Amino acid sequence: MSNISTSARQDLPNLVTALPGPKSKAVIERDAAVVSPSYTRSYPFVIERGEGAMVEDVDGNRFLDMNAGIAVVATGHCHPQVVAAIRAQAEKFLHMSGTDFYYENMVEFAEKLAAIAGPGDARRVYYGNSGTEAIEAALKMSRYHTGRDKFVAFLGGFHGRTMGALSLTGSKSVQKQGFSPLLGGVTHIPYAYCYRCAYGKQAETCNVECVKVLEETLFKTILPAKEVAAIFVEPVQGEGGYIVPPRKFFDELQAVAKRHGILLVCDEVQSGMGRTGKMFAYQHFGVDPDIVAIAKGIASGMPLSATVAKARYMQWTPGAHASTFGGNPVSVAAAMATVELIEKELLANTAEVGAHMKARMQEWPRRFPIVGEVRGLGLMLGFEIVRDQQTKERAPELRDAIVDAAYQRGLLVLGAGQNTVRLSPPLVLSKDQADFSLSTLEEILGGLTG
């Protein structure tokens, strides 16, 4: 059966060559000779251009992008309002280094971030270029403010690849192999992965053992609470498998942190900027974080990150921490346009289309024996692939087959965790596009289960 499909609609896939096409093959061969082999590529897609939720490869094949550049192009590829903001700023000046000089849009966007992070407390903003830089700033700030040197993070969590952020990461061993020694003083505990509870409990009746292990065991044995500077947590685990914890997990986590004077840092690098139907995922759970790390979707594809902290914790002195390119004026201009679009249009679309998708996907465990669980918020959705729904045995090779089969049908998806397929499309995704993606995945799931 040919893998070439046709669609006259510009908002749906159209494949005109076998995949990968000849031009894509040529680029990939050149890439293999000169680009770092550490990069992971799940399939041979070579982009030429993008618009909205659609991308086209160098051979003219059109795909529906359910990855959004790894949850980055929140407003879709090349949104006209974002492009116009970039162009307008680029015609004024490209760089002046906000660590040494002043420019207004850097201040204006910091004011906006401080406002949307939450009511009540004054906040300050540190700018970087990537998620891992936002986490590094949070690490250093936590130590600087508290005078403590230890941290708590969660198994399955991903916080970045620089040495400090990598020390917090508990996702895949390959990410740490060969890079030791890492930052000392990090203790990892189980996340509220209720489908696979580390304590064998049920979410409805558990005693939040995954948090209470801190006070009931760790603080009494190997981890003095008075030496813990901060707890780092993803409100929804991203690379770990798009895992959504229950509200009581955060209620307990905040209470423990407050009792012991420990800062609570929310890593919103993947889950923030409207992805879950709220500006930040922690807003679903009533969390009031001390520090928030933001990147990915913040500037619709331009490199930018922000570490937003309650002002009383960001009291380090001039020269203590800085970044030459952090808060680049062109990236900030893109970010301001991005936030405006999210607030005015895309939060509502994300909540509506995400609920539409999840309602249909929640039938999948009943329809397809290899689907163990469907979970997510807004347009941050995942479904876990298993060999058997009773034993929950993971099926990573089936997950990978689904990802590849989707590519062959013009749908770009990726894995997360050991055996989950994640859906993180641009927030401009339409219901028609959502339905196409789900119909395609249902066809693939049906084929794998007979």
Structural write-up:
With 450 residues, the protein is an alpha/beta fold. The chain contains twelve helices and 15 strands. It has two domains: 22-81 and 343-449, Aspartate Aminotransferase, domain 1 (Alpha-Beta Complex); 96-327, Type I PLP-dependent aspartate aminotransferase-like (Major domain) (Aspartate Aminotransferase, domain 2, 3-Layer(aba) Sandwich). The chain has helices at 22-34, 68-71, 80-90, 104-116, 131-146, 163-168, 209-221, 247-259, 329-361, 364-367, 396-408, 431-449; strands spanning 47-51, 54-57, 62-65, 123-128, 150-154, 186-189, 228-233, 263-267, 291-294, 305-310, 371-377, 380-385, 411-412, 414-416, 420-423. The chain has a seven-stranded mixed sheet, with helices on both faces. Strands 1-2-3-13 form a four-stranded mixed sheet. The mean pLDDT is 96.
Strand and helix layout:
Elements: H1 22-34, E1 47-51, E2 54-57, E3 62-65, H2 68-71, H3 80-90, H4 104-116, E4 123-128, H5 131-146, E5 150-154, H6 163-168, E6 186-189, H7 209-221, E7 228-233, H8 247-259, E8 263-267, E9 291-294, E10 305-310, H9 329-361, H10 364-367, E11 371-377, E12 380-385, H11 396-408, E13 411-412, E14 414-416, E15 420-423, H12 431-449
